[in-house]
Amino acid sequence: MSASWRRRANQHGGLPIKLGPCSNGEFAAPPASPVVRETIRRTLMAADAHAARLGISRRRFLTSSCGSALTLLTLAACSSEASQATQGTEPGGTFSLPPTSTTEPEVASSVLADDTQFVMDVQGHLLDYAFTPDEEWDGGPFTGQAFPQANCGESDPRVCFSIESFLDLFFLQSDTSIVVLSAIPAFENPNPLSPEVMAQTRTIVSALCDHERVLAHGMAVPNAGDVDVALAAMAQLREDFDITAWKMYPHIPASAPFRFDDADPSLAQVGRRFLDQVRQVGPPIVCVHKGISSIGGGYPADPVDIGPAAVENPDISFVVYHSGFELDVPEGAYDPARPNGGVDRLIASVEGAGVGPGANVYAELGSTWRAVMSDPDQAAHTLGKLLNAFGEDRVVWGTDSIWYGSPQDQIEAFRAFEISEQYQEQYGYPALTPEVKDKILGLNAATLYEIDPTHVECEFSREDLRTIRQEAGVEPVTLGPVDQAEHQALLAGQT
Questions:
Q1: Beta strands of 438-482 (E only): which ranges?
Q2: What are phi and psi of 383, to 5 degrees?
Q3: Using CA atoms, how far apart are residues 408 and 197, in angstroms rounded to an integer?
């Protein structure tokens, strides 16, 4: 195991709720906050004591539901202390679990686990190299060391992003019921998340589970090259593959960004033509990256056009990925006179256009929840603002995994999270009741995608995965060194 992998493992202290810095590849992960560092320190100390009393190892304790409960309760306590010391008040959010959940697994599981809850993740990713066996590992933006998973512990880092790893992390290591494979901005071949890769993944899952657990997006790029060719490609993609929505990155390529409403004449004038094509070929769902704009840059990553486009196109659903969130913008209460540079931009856009709760705009939480869940005050403001602006039926669950490993810790943290009564009274935020959480975690997306929101267990092994892949005829990829140079490179990486 390489030294770099050991350093990555330690960034979370080995805790079951991964609080340390991590990125989805679209931003530089900020360092862990003092609260997170103290949470890790205290949790490890308490875990040692609990493990000693139980006569088990610390690692075994931390992998239990009690380990997750201990982490969240410690985070809540550290956040409270920090807020009292700096602001003189309690944070607006907390993680609510019974005190005995740190020692009684059944108590912890009563909050953190739910074998029947329907969880639909609308933002999942993988990078599969079985279709591109000759691709150089460091030859493109979605290869090499671009993501932390490249040091997941496998002898060949490409395995860390594979279909097998994706299915393992989502369906064996988390409570996810259905995941949507969301396209990435890889506009040229080879594309490790191409429509073919998505279709192959769905074939494998259907063979393993005998029911649908993976949906797929279609990538649309009207701003790259000839717009007529791009629109024709959409129609062909819709004909060739069973896609359930369109995925967009209007700020990429940076040489030709665009807005959906074509309101800026200096930008590519393709927004309205794209939406007309969506209306023509279907499905009428547009999933658009807005926020987290370090890649590509420029204001087309700003959700300013969402409100006007939603009004002009009431028959199209706009799912705003990341909800306009930015890592360097602290989320506080929404002030319509002074919206911040993050989530407030989306709220201001729909508010200014007269788009209210329950309309055709959805706020998605991928990477956003992962970023704020270690800061309960920001988490309360973020969720509270989105619920007020869009309604409890228009906030949808996404995790942006596998970039963050298994999404289970995000699910557990969300299940235990509460917005304080003080913030409910002060800012009018709704309570995160079990019914509201059920909607966000899955029911809202199920309604949007018109699928049955029933959680069905599907158990399989890594051997099952290998067998199904073989039977499906997926091309093999050489995982080990194939010559002396590769062998020397492998040895160098392990020192």
A1: none
A2: -65, -40
A3: 24
CA–CA separation, 246 and 16 (whole Å): 34
Each residue's pLDDT tens digit, 434-476: 999 999 999 999 999 999 999 888 777 767 766 765 565 433 3
- The C-alpha atoms of residue 403 and residue 415 are separated, in whole angstroms, by 21
DSSP symbol at 354? T
What pTM did the predictor assign? 0.90
- Of 226, 366, 197, the C-alpha closest to 291 is 366
CA 477 to chain centre: 27
Question: Measured in Å, how far apart are the chain's first and last C-alpha atoms?
Answer: 8
Instruction: In whole angstroms, give the CA distance from residue 139 to residue 410.
Output: 32
For the chain, which domains are there? 3-108 (no CATH), 120-449 (3.20.20.140)
d(CA 299, CA 250) in angstroms, rounded, equals 10
pLDDT of residue 298: 54
What integer pLDDT is reported at residue 134 of this predicted model?
47
What is the number of other CB atoms lying within 10 angstroms of the CB of residue 313?
Answer: 20
On the 0-12 / 13-18 / 19+ scale of CB atoms within 10 A, 3 is exposed
